[in-house]
Write a structure and sequence with these properties.
32% helix, 381 residues, alpha+beta, 9-stranded mixed beta sheet, binds 3-hydroxy-3-methylglutaryl-coenzyme A, 2 domains, Peroxisomal Thiolase, Chain A, domain 1
Length: 381
């Protein structure tokens, strides 16, 4: 059977960041609650001329510059920060990247799980025709109400992946474990710019889904825990991965420790929650910071509130050996926000009925130029 998986993977984020020390000063909370209690140092925050499209296109541009467009006939855009009830955000990306008309484009949604759903759909397309490659983009802006417990777990980022036969980075193995449950832990109604969340319930729903998905993986010929070398979890905040690892170890009666989680948290500690992109930022972080993973097996847990989750596994391929940390420079280049500037940007709303031109702030290759005649306008810088 042809090996199929992640051939290349690139991340992008925003122009701004908010240091969680600055947020702690405003909320009057001990900064260690954020740094140690949640495992977060910073959160990415978009400039007025950035959104999920500009981040997604930026990540995908780097990917296509390296790999070309040959065989790309599908673009799947996973997000839960959707911009339109009808038009897929990927259609804007398709134009910005100059992709040919002969490419199908669609948006996939199920909270943070959407990126994994897109990858599995992509694997199916490549299995049918191994000459095709699928561009998967997971891009999100995590936003909670100001002064709410969720506020320090905001963030933003995009992961672009090329799913192909004979992949250079990670072969996705056929076995996977699934777990879905209708639960009101986190959702965002169509008329709301911020998510509604029951924090405690979201943590217990995540952990129940983790053991449920693991059991299903075990029941579908998945590997034993001892045959998995690194575990990477969806990281709404990096402490959640520690909670997950402890719960899985308890469930299986083994001590999994948590040292192995450190490399996979390096990017996420600074990005914040990037919803659909979070798990794949963790994968990039592991591949970019560990040099001896070729031939080793990764266990990936994808959780999307609401909820749908999947435990999948992948074997690291030789191409991963040449990866280096390119993303820390992008994180370092972000411009810090003052607390007042952050709160001002957070409160900003753009009603679609109003024509608006956004200020020129971002230094990314693409910008959101504004709204004209109720339609969003983008440009290449
Ligand atoms: P909270 O109630 O403010 O925090 O909200 P807490 O009081 O539970 O404290 C957090 C941790 O900090 C605790 O550790 C404290 O002990 C510790 P834990 O018990 O968890 O190990 N702490 C300190 N540590 C060091 N020094 C100190 C200190 N003080 C306290 N001084 C909560 C936390 C995560 C609930 C909140 O931020 C929230 O609601 N976040 C949003 C929801 C969320 O991220 N849920 C995660 C699971 S659901 C999921 O992952 C899906 C999601 O990504 C969405 C999607 O799928 O689309 C969210």
């Amino acid at each position: 059977m042809t090996a199929i998986g992640i051939h290349d993977l690139e991340l992008a984020t925003t122009h701004h960041l908010l240091d969680l020390g600055v947020l702690a000063e405003r909320t009057g909370v001990d900064p260690d609650k954020y740094r140690l209690g949640l495992g977060q140092d910073e959160m990415s925050f978009p400039a007025p001329d950035e959104d999920i499209v500009t981040m997604g296109a930026t990540a995908a541009l780097a990917l296509l510059d390296r790999n070309g467009m040959e065989g790309v006939r599908t673009l799947l855009f996973a997000t839960e920060s959707g911009l339109d009830h009808s038009k897929a955000a990927g259609v804007f990306v398709h134009k910005l990247l100059g992709l040919p008309a002969q490419v199908r484009v669609a948006e996939i949604k199920q909270a943070c799980y959407g990126g994994t759903a897109a990858i599995q759909a992509a694997v199916g397309i490549v299995q049918r025709n191994p000459r095709e490659r699928v561009l998967v983009i997971a891009s999100d802006i995590a936003r909670y109400t100001l002064d709410s417990p969720g506020e320090p777990t905001q963030g933003a980022g995009a992961a672009a992946m090329l799913i192909a036969a004979d992949p250079a980075l990670v072969e996705i193995e056929p076995a996977s474990g699934l777990f879905s449950d209708d639960v009101d832990d986190f959702w965002r109604p169509n008329d709301s710019t911020t998510a509604i969340v029951d924090g405690r319930l979201s943590i217990s729903a995540y952990l129940d889904a983790l053991t449920g998905a693991w059991d299903d993986l075990a029941g579908h010929d998945g590997p034993a825990i001892g045959d998995i070398d690194r575990l990477v979890y969806h990281q709404p905040y990096t402490k959640m991965a520690r909670k997950a690892q402890a719960r899985l170890g308890e469930h299986l009666g083994v001590d999994l420790g948590d040292d192995g989680l450190v490399p996979g948290a390096i990017y996420n500690r600074r990005l914040g929650n990037a919803y659909t992109a979070s798990l794949y930022a963790g994968v990039a972080s592991v591949l970019d910071h560990e040099s001896d993973l070729v031939g080793k097996r990764l266990g990936l847990f994808s959780y999307g509130s609401g909820s749908v989750s999947e435990f999948l596994t992948g074997v690291v391929q030789p191409g991963a050996a040449s990866r280096t940390d390119r993303f820390t420079a992008a994180l370092d280049a972000r411009v810090p926000l003052t607390i007042d500037a952050y709160r001002g940007l957070h409160a900003r709303e753009l009603p679609s009925a109003q024509d608006v031109e956004t200020p020129r702030v971002t230094e990314a290759p693409f910008r959101f130029a504004g709204i004209q005649g109720s339609a969003r306008r983008y440009e290449r810088r």
